Amino acid sequence: MSRFDTIAVVGAGAWGTALANAAARAGREVLLLARDPASAATIATRRESPRLAGVTLDPAVTVLGRATEVAQAGMFLVAVPAQALRAALTPLATVLPAGAVVVACAKGIERATGRFMTQVIAEVVPGATPAILSGPSFADDVARGLPTAVTLAAAPEDVARALCQALGSPTFRPYHTTDVRGVEIGGAAKNVLAIAAGIVAGRKLGASALAALTTRGFAELVRFGRACGARNETLAGLSGLGDLILTCSSPQSRNFSFGIALGEGSSAAQAGAGKLAEGAYTASVLLEVARRHGIDMPISEAVAAILEGRCDVDAAITALLARPFKAEG
């Protein structure tokens, strides 16, 4: 019997529903923890999350509403937004079994502290083994069983490998690595860059400009990653380049759609109404970390300036186009 035969998914939104179904397809018993007992009862009765309407939960998924009810799991997939991770972990801290593996499934940096997701896990649940799951994956695709590949990172290689074995199936393929920080950086930075890509699309600057923006955005991601100790193969892999390509090219990406609205003239408040664009919360703290390392990230800086009201979209585009000519790199 594997320690990961029972998997808890914390958060019954779109991504939590998708991961619950993916874990069930891998043959695991799945405990899906909703935000409160009332929500759990509704989701359990309807067998679908209101955040992912039309997708039925796998029969192997049990919906629960209290943290104490998931304590027997060996793996905890925390599928909540990056800025809500700390709050979601707090009620679990006293019930998690010793040695539990806690996998952050959010893509961002905690705005109040500048900490990456696994650092938040280590602070709130010091007895747990932190891990991170990231990669080019839309919740609807994963929930419906469409082919998807992601990266799953944990510092102990045997744990990373075991996590992939536990979650992997013919339609959900995790690749393991010990480069935790590299995976976290890819997920956080690509959300900010996807907003910039959306702005280009919203301003109708053309496919050539979008390709250039995405490529130069990847150069920023790589500079940032290398300065923080990430491996080149991670940055060029699924959780880096792969996720960047997906989120910079599809309106299914909330960050890309948010950017499109900005490019079409909406304010940040209007663009974000009713939607969660993680990059909007990550942009400023991403730049804070970059400045500490002396990293130049002009595209991310432009996004942050627009979001903070320091310049408008046209001024940001003009400033980027007026940058000095230089060698590519």
Chain-wise SSE layout:
Elements lengths: L5 E5 L3 H12 L3 E5 L3 H10 L14 E4 L10 E4 L6 H5 L11 E4 L12 H8 L4 E6 L4 H5 L4 E7 L2 H11 L4 E6 L2 H23 L4 H21 L4 H4 L2 H10 L6 H10 L4 H4 L6 H15 L5 H10 L5 H9 L8
Helix pairs in contact: 7-8, 7-10, 7-11, 7-13, 7-14, 13-14, 14-15
Q: Which runs of at least 5 residues are low in confidence (pLDDT < 50)?
A: none
Helix content: 40-55%
Q: What is the H/E order?
A: EHEHEEHEHEHEHEHHHHHHHHH
Oligomer: single chain
Shape: globular
Descriptive account of the structure:
- The chain contains 15 helices and eight strands.
- The model has no long low-confidence stretch (mean pLDDT 95).
- The chain is of the alpha/beta class and 329 residues long.
- Strands 3-2-1-4-5-6-7-8 form an eight-stranded mixed β-sheet, with helices on both faces.
- Helices cover 48% and strands 12% of the residues.
Summarize the structure.
The chain has 329 residues and is α/β, with parallel strands linked by helices. Helix content is 48%, strand content 12%.
